[in-house]
Amino acid sequence: MGTPGGLKEFRRLLNWLIMSDWIISEGLSHSGQFQFPVVLQKKGVWEKGPGIDFFNVIKQKLGKLPIIAEDLGEITEEVEQLRQQAGLNGMKVLQFAFDGNPHNPYLPYNIFPDSVTYTGTHDNDTSIGWYNSLSSDNKVFVHNFLGCNGAAVFLQLFLRLAFGSPSRLCIIPFQDVLGLGTGHRMNTPGTGSGNWKWRFTEDQICKEKLQEIGELTNVFGRAPVKEKKANPEKTN
């Protein structure tokens, strides 16, 4: 997409997603990109991408863009440098944090501000479902980190942990807002059926849960700042 045609394609993508404040980039593909031959075969090749030049052109033509880089999985130092150069926020998923490794990059004390913290994404189980699937040892780690001793207050503290992270942004899947379990998972990668069908119903919306999210938003300074209206000048 490092061509005029690619710029047009990118602009069209933004128009499709204009209803959203943020868009997700499926990885930083402009560090390297996978090329398929014209006639699709089993094997493709990795080619060097345009790197920072692509993002510089985008900024020059379209201005600062609200992009979140999907930097999950195996990320090279080159890709991380590109993300920082381009000024993109990375992703920090709390469900990936509790493997017992104190250097895990998803633990809140290892998170840098140029990121977005999620409890989980559309590809993860709901946080309640994830918690219930943990081994006994991992549950102990979670309990110790959150300061709880069981499932009763886990989700409340887990949401609080996300809101209180150093990340510039925090995103909570609606299933976690509603406190739902595995049966409400959105997507299971690698499976061919039963995905992307979840919908909430009006009776699931609980005023108290929404109020809790509102309180966390305010407590951790994540509420939109309201501009003060200037007082009209007094006339004599």
Properties at a glance:
alpha/beta, three-stranded parallel β-sheet, single chain, 236 residues, 8 helices, 7 strands
Description of the structure:
This protein has helices at 4-16, 52-62, 77-86, 127-133, 136-146, 154-163, 174-178, 207-219; strands at 23-25, 32-35, 45-48, 67-69, 90-93, 115-118, 169-171. The protein has 236 residues and is an alpha/beta fold. The strands form three sheets. A three-stranded parallel beta sheet has the order 5-6-7, with no helix packed on it. The longest helix has 13 residues, at 4-16. Mean pLDDT is 84; it is low at 18-27.
Present the secondary structure layout.
Blueprint: H1 4-16, E1 23-25, E2 32-35, E3 45-48, H2 52-62, E4 67-69, H3 77-86, E5 90-93, E6 115-118, H4 127-133, H5 136-146, H6 154-163, E7 169-171, H7 174-178, H8 207-219
Quick synopsis:
The chain is of the alpha/beta class. 34% of the residues lie in helices and 11% in strands. The chain has 2 domains: 1-37 and 44-88, no CATH class; 90-222, no CATH class.
Q: Total number of β-strand segments?
A: 7
Class per helix and strand makeup: alpha/beta
Order of neighbouring strands in the sheet with most strands = 5-6-7
Separation of termini? 61 Å
Q: Biggest β-sheet, characterized?
A: 3 strands, parallel
Show unreliable segments: 18-27
How much β-strand is present in the residues? 5-15%
What is the count of structural domains? 2
